[in-house]
Amino acid sequence: MIEPKNFYRKLDILQSRIGLEKSGKDYLLTIITELQNIFGGDLKITNGSIYERVDNEYILFYRPTTEKTLPILPQIPNDSEVVQLILKSKTYIFNSPVFYNPEDMIGMTAYITHVAFTVHSQANRWIVVFDLLSEWVREEVDLCLNAVRTALNYRLISESVNSELKQAVQIQQSLLPGTSPTISGYEIAGFSQPAELVGGDLYDYFEFDEGEFGFCIGDASGHGIPAALMVRDVVTGLRMGIEKEMKMVHTLRKLNSVIYRGAYTSSFISLFYAELEKNGNLFFANAGHPSPLLFTKDTVEELEPTGLIMGAFPQIDISRSFIKFPPGGVLVLYTDGIIERMNNKADLFNVAGIKKVVQGNLHLKAEDIMKKIFKAANAFGKSTRWEDDATLIVIKRNI
Whole-prediction pTM value? Predict the structure, then answer.
């Protein structure tokens, strides 16, 4: 029997290695070798070998080779009794050395059986096999190998999830504009702050001929990966519609139909889309999005919804509207994350918070106005974590 204090100290060392060891193609082999080095004598395990799942069988990936090491089966069908016992029990101690060919065991007098456990990531599965020598203790073998198996699975699956999250972040970042367009007579600034690694807010720009350009802002219900997937579909669909020179109302109606028929029937998205001519003519359609604010020196005008949110119904009744964007005017587009920023008294930053910042800073550049709104909203929430995705676009007309 292993002295308990010594056993748990060794197990703690091994689990630390599992969590800290550099990952890569030799990661599993490194840990299995370390497991044998630390516990080989105590647990009576040796010749740690690894099988990897390939199609419908497990192929021998690694087996130590010495003069005293017997060869083991090079492959095992997935539907074999041996494999099914391991997959069902996760860790299994066999009554006989089932991974040896019987003819290879002729003349062998020493006691040997096999113990095996399964390890998996999201994409791969392996079976680890040890020769189990005489005088082993079932409770010790089970406890140690189950603890190692659990730690390995957690590390491998966590890495797979983190890798997918990083890919999702990269995909979403590639959808958002890297820079603002340069349009004569206008300053444009935009930024999105996700509440999680990926978010459900979107904004985009569309450059046309003769100084005209379009822009949009949207907010998918919820946040995180499901909302990010919705954003991906909407951005892609909107870009395709605009590139085909469809009218904005037709594009939004078609996009709504596609979203409704898709995988996110319990989700919806608000979307504001506009096209701005060089002379200040602003044509827009607002599908249930919080009303953008057009500031002048003496007025604030809201660009109210012209239709319902998208994705909630198979068809939406949406129309186009018009407003004049005067020289010196500032247009602010925002999502709920800005106006619903809350302080410790449960008060909201609200539209009034945006108005207060902008009206006192109309003389600044669009980029600086945007930064001041974010700074004010962040301070209002005592710089705590953002509970919802927050996005701003600020456009200023200079001439």
Answer: 0.64
